[in-house]
Design goal:
Blueprint (H helix, E strand, L loop, with lengths): L21 E3 L5 E3 H9 L4 E2 L6 E2 L8 H53 L8
Antiparallel strand pairs: 1-2, 3-4
């Protein structure tokens, strides 16, 4: 049975956004490359912001698998946002159509009733 991927797995805990050029540091935590490098500029130690483990300046490189997963997540997020927007527009259009149909029906009934007494009332 497939399980849903947690969105926490593709988000940097420093910038709280989807990874951009993710890197893994020696303790195993992942961050955007620029986020962890900027963080290390603010501290005297090379330390993980999550578990506080310290180490010598690591040689970090981009985790290409995690980067691909993050890019796919971004694409899915854009597609889902577009679908949601289309669904909202459709619901709004359907709602207006129902209101117009009701309004036209109500106006037609009122007009037919009023025609018999020779008085016309504009429906508002």
């Amino acid at each position: 049975m497939p399980t849903r991927l947690s969105t926490d797995l593709v988000h940097c805990s420093i910038c709280l956004d989807v990874f951009t050029n993710p890197v893994s540091i020696p303790c195993g935590h992942n961050f955007c490359r620029c986020c962890i490098l900027d963080y290390w500029k603010t501290t005297a130690l090379f330390q993980c912001p999550m578990c506080k483990k310290t180490f010598k300046r690591p040689d970090i490189s981009i985790n290409t698998v995690l980067r691909e997963i993050a890019e796919q997540f971004k694409d899915i997020r854009v597609i889902n946002a577009e679908r949601l927007q289309q669904q909202e527009l459709k619901e709004e259009r359907d709602s207006l159509l129902i209101k117009l149909t009701y309004s036209d029906f109500h106006c037609a009934c009122k007009s037919n009733f009023q025609k018999r007494s020779s008085v016309f009332v504009k429906y508002q």
